[in-house]
Amino acid sequence: MSSVRYMALGWLAVTIIAVTAVVCKAHTKKITDNGKGFAVVELFTSEGCSSCPPADAVVAKIQKESNDKPIYILAFHVDYWNRLGWKDVFSSADYSHRQNQYASWLNLSEVYTPQIIVNGKTEFVGSEEGTLRNAIKANLQKDAVAGITLSDIKVDGDKASLNYQTKGNISNTALLVAVVQKSAQTKVERGENAGHTLSHVQIVRSLQSLSLKNSSGTESIILPKGFAAKGSELVAFLQNTSTGAIIGATKAEF
């Protein structure tokens, strides 16, 4: 099994080839933040990595169990494994860049897949179910230091407008809004997962960062190509731009 490790240097990544056996290195229903703890689970994955399907299965299990709990799963498909013979249709260089930004924030010497980061502060191998459950449990027991709610989401062509309202200290904070496809399956024909049909949940189709000038306001986001309101949702979260820590989150359906 092949692996590529990326060394973080600010916003840039230096590629090193290595081998590893562990990792492939309209109106909306409003969900209101209640001030309790939450967990934003970011999975960095790829259809081109043979170590990723077990991690995809773990987050799918967590997603199925979460119901209305404040657990927000975001699956970012990176693009650096596309060179192995299979282009992940959900992959984006933007998601690879986000992973490398985390390497800078968390003082990591490399990035890899599958990698999970919880609330922008804790990272580990994405297939470690016990570690993930413990991280979620710990964060649900903490009080959120800030909050975000979305309302009045309207789709107009390739854009959507939304109202947001925050509470708490939002200095040095950006509002990130992810358009998420809830599920998909892909039959992989080449690469490390050739011959397998892969199942995915909570696939990030676009991620946009909005500057917060006020505690509330109206914003517009661009919808991804092929967007369908059915089977999609928005996940919004507040992230410290200096440390990467996520201090509040919510979601809303189209």
TrEMBL record:
<dbReference type="InterPro" id="IPR010634">
    <property type="entry name" value="DUF1223"/>
</dbReference>
<dbReference type="InterPro" id="IPR036249">
    <property type="entry name" value="Thioredoxin-like_sf"/>
</dbReference>
<protein>
    <recommendedName>
        <fullName>DUF1223 domain-containing protein</fullName>
    </recommendedName>
</protein>
<dbReference type="Pfam" id="PF06764">
    <property type="entry name" value="DUF1223"/>
</dbReference>
